[in-house]
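SAMPLE LOG
Freezer: B-3
Tube label: C17
Construct: single chain, 95 aa
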Amino acid sequence: MVRIETGMLARSKAGHDHGKLYIIIRTEAEYVWLADGVCHTVDNPKKKKKKHIQIIHRIPEPVRSLLESSSPLQNGHIKQIIQSESQDRQEDKHV
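STRUCTURE (predicted):
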């Protein structure tokens, strides 16, 4: 079984949001709750089956710091981290 943790990045593999990057904010047996800080906020996360996401086995440093300090993840943080990660991935494709 794949290890899924709060704070990890995940990419949608199915649905109208296919390819979109999220941060996992909660996990359960069969589902995860995802936030992007814009459409799907911390207060209104997207519920998605685990089989419909691709886990990126890395917790971005700003998320790790917030989780370790027990500070709540805020939409502004999530939006900024996802934008940064998306830019990094675009740069990787052009190498």
